[in-house]
Every structure is written in C-alpha cells, then in structure tokens.
Design brief:
Length: about 60
C-alpha cells in the first residue's frame, strides 16, 4: 500500500478512536496539552506517533 493511502486510512482509524474516547470522556495524557477545551482526546505527539505506527503497519509488505 502506498504511504499516502495508508496515511488517509490511519487518520480514519484515529478518528474512530477519537469518537470512542469522546463518548467515554477520556483524554490521553500528553505533554503537548495546553489545557484548552478544544484539544482532541488523542493530541500532540501521541497522535502523530500512533498515526506513524499505523502507517508503518499498513505499508509493511505482506501486512495489508
């Protein structure tokens, strides 16, 4: 799978997790948080680390 397509899928997966966390009232701790109410449940470097890991999984030959 090409990286661009994998990144779009990773973002969709993270959006689904985000909705679940919103429904549960859970925010993943992050050193990047500023305490603003509009901050997402998965925020900052934690978001990008998860996105990168999902992309890596999807672009690994034989996995997707």
């Amino acid at each position: 799978m090409k990286e661009e397509q994998a990144r779009r899928i990773a973002i969709q997966i993270l959006d689904e997790f985000e909705e679940t966390l919103v429904g549960k009232g859970v925010k993943i701790p992050s050193k990047d948080r500023k305490g603003r109410e509009e901050e997402a449940c998965i925020y900052g470097c934690e978001y990008y680390e998860l996105e990168g890991t999902i992309v890596d999984i999807l672009t690994t030959p034989g996995v997707s």
